[in-house]
Design a protein that fits this description.
This protein is α+β, with helices and mostly antiparallel strands. Helix content is about 30%, strand content about 15%. The chain has a single domain, classed as Beta-lactamase (3-Layer(aba) Sandwich). The chain has nine helices and 13 strands.
Length: about 325
């Protein structure tokens, strides 16, 4: 079995075990496409269309990496003074006592300690900077902040500054269903659902991306904003987005984050990046299964796609993500 067949076998095994109807794997090495693999169908229903290069997957919370780039722009352009600014200076609508000493750094690294209940009430789980927890309220807050700072949504900002210059035509927040959109399997015993939204302003989880443009997004970061023979994004903006911004944790097993990217610093047991992946690598994940892994030391970008909610079997997801990233690292270290 050659090195790429090992990765394809792993991807297909997860697809079958977790009842995803679709999978895709797209790998770039030294800015060249070295593997494209597509399998399955757009839905788990009879006569559903096969997955192809133009199939666009709902990337769920992997959209955080797109939001992160606009936050990097805001820092680079001075619209945000510092990640160590207090959140109360930017979010007047939130309770000042509740926010306390929470900083923007805490918000972008999942170390803020805030949560929201089903009735919309915000409460505190732990003191900012002391623990790590993915909750989503920070993504909502930073989405609101970018809109306030630029007087436009972060997807609109990205379309102007990145997607159009890069020639991306298969990356968009979708409000209307069409043939290239892959549906999401919620319950394997029921038909997959269309996960389009009512808005394209980034407030909903309706970003759809093809596997190749997902990989190109990773490769744009790998190349520090250089693409198609031009500097599309300032190098400094990419560096801000992908460097470690996490506070110093007493618990060394907690993940390290850039601007929402998971970044490999010292290997950590609770990180989604395996311990054999080189330092400086970074990854993003969505609950429907999409991941981008960027390994600068090997000049490699790997994008893999699924369409099953809780694709990696719920609480076991870290095991699978670490296993796959270690496999990629082992293959390209040879």
């Amino acid at each position: 079995m050659n090195k790429y067949e090992q990765l394809i076998s792993w991807v297909e095994n997860i697809k079958d075990r977790n009842h995803s109807s679709a999978a895709a794997l797209f790998i770039m090495k030294d800015n060249q496409v070295v593997l494209e693999h597509y399998s399955g169908t757009h839905s788990n229903t009879k006569n559903s269309s096969p997955i192809t290069a133009t199939s666009q997957f709902n990337v769920a919370s992997a959209r955080k990496s797109y939001l992160g780039l606009t936050i990097a722009y805001a820092l680079y352009e001075g619209k945000i003074r510092s990640l160590d600014d207090y959140a109360v200076d930017y979010f007047e609508e939130y309770d000042k006592t509740l926010l306390g000493h929470t900083t923007l750094r805490h918000l972008v690294t999942h170390s803020h300690g805030l949560n929201m209940n089903d009735s919309g009430m915000v409460y505190r789980e732990f003191e900012s900077g002391e623990e790590w927890a993915y909750r989503g309220i920070n993504v909502e807050m930073m989405t609101q902040l970018i809109h306030k700072l630029y007087n436009k949504s972060f997807p609109e900002l990205l379309r102007e500054r990145v997607f159009i210059p890069a020639g991306f035509t298969e990356t968009a927040w979708q409000k209307a269903d069409h043939d290239n959109l892959v549906k999401v399997v919620i319950n394997p015993g029921e038909p997959a659902e269309s996960k389009i939204g009512a808005s394209d302003d980034g407030t909903e989880s309706n970003l759809f991306v093809s596997a190749r443009e997902f990989a190109y997004w990773g490769n744009l970061h790998l190349n520090k904003g250089y693409m198609n023979g031009k500097q599309i994004v300032p190098k400094e903006v990419i560096e801000i987005a992908t460097q470690v911004h996490s506070p110093h944790y007493k618990n060394t097993n907690l993940p390290q984050n850039g601007l929402f990217w998971f970044v490999q610093n010292a290997p950590a047991l609770q990180s989604e990046i395996g311990e054999r992946v080189p330092k400086g690598s970074y990854q993003i994940l969505g609950v429907t299964g999409p991941t981008i892994l960027v390994i600068p030391e090997y000049n490699v970008v790997v994008a893999k796609m699924y369409n099953k909610r809780y694709n990696y079997e719920g609480d076991n997801y870290l095991q699978y993500l670490r296993e796959f990233s270690n496999l990629v690292a082992d293959i390209f270290a040879q």
